[in-house]
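Box 3.1 A note on notation
Throughout this textbook, protein chains are presented in two layers. The first layer is the amino acid sequence; the second is a token string describing backbone geometry. Keep the layers aligned when reading.
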Amino acid sequence: MKLVEVKFEIPEDLEPRIAALAAQMGLSFDMAAELLLWDGYATHLCASVERTEREFREDAV
């Protein structure tokens, strides 16, 4: 088994949104960004962030 480290850039406008989602999920910024990137693997990271934000809003209602 090999451990692989992947680096990617987060657009500045998404940083505060990912930080807020990380806090809601109880995760570090890095872990939340990775999960959102995996979720948005076939789409754009921004779409993944928007979908996750929408799910948190719906769960709060």
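The helical segments are 15-25, 29-39, 45-60. The mean pLDDT is 85.
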